[in-house]
Amino acid sequence: MCKEQVKTARSYMLLLFVITAASMASCKKTTLSSDTASLTVVNAAVGQRQIIPNFDASTPLPQYFYSLHVIYGSFSVADQLDYTGKRMLAFYNYIDTLPQAHPLVTVPVDLETGSVHSVFVTGTPAHPDVLFTNDTIAYYPNNDSTAGIRFVNILSSGESVNINQQVTPAVKEVSNLAYKGATGFIRYPATRSITSYKFEFRNAVTGTLINTYTVNQPGAQGLSYNPNLWLFKNNTLALIGSTDSVGTYRPQVILINNF
Prior knowledge:
Largest sheet: 5 strands, mixed
Helix content: 10-25%
Strand content: 35-45%
CATH class of the largest domain: Mainly Beta
Low-confidence stretches: 6-32
Order of helices and strands: HEEEEEEEEEEEEEEEEE
Shape: globular
Number of strands: 17
CATH topology of the largest domain: Immunoglobulin-like
CATH superfamily of the largest domain: Domain of unknown function DUF5300
């Protein structure tokens, strides 16, 4: 191959690389549309093993099998939700998804462009309920070893709770958090010297321990296959279930990863 042919080949390869890189960058940008909103859906409805959200209750879902299924005690995030503006959300029990079926519960919302929200489906099949929150997500710079934690009380049995940090003496974090109450994201140091935070959720009237949750190694070095869920991030600890239940629907604290 002569020098001119080598030069041409190199120019062609360089052009191909630039086009490919530009295409990849364009693809990444399309996932961050400014015309969408983010909504975290949490299934905390005692007795509802799976719920299916319909983000536009005025239009039946075309295929329920391929719709979003949210298992009890878990959450799902719709990051690129195109349904912005005022609308009605509907939540169905998984086995009641025929077009003529009635939703378990509906909730009117106003999803502003670029906004972040959570919706907690709670209660029971006989008395369903919903908590909708506007989430103000805190930003933590890389030189600030901090984690944000929000506490939510969605016990279907309706008790108010106190939340303490289990140390000696105990540190009171939240007092008298009512049913469907939610705090803002509270800043906690997340340095490597901190081994854990252990939170107690107690009945606000009787002081009875309902459950605990331990945040382990909030400042640990994350790995690609096991990233740190706490450092520079915001998370929600939600108390769900019912003190009248045992087994699957007993009181428990679940972790919800926000941003």
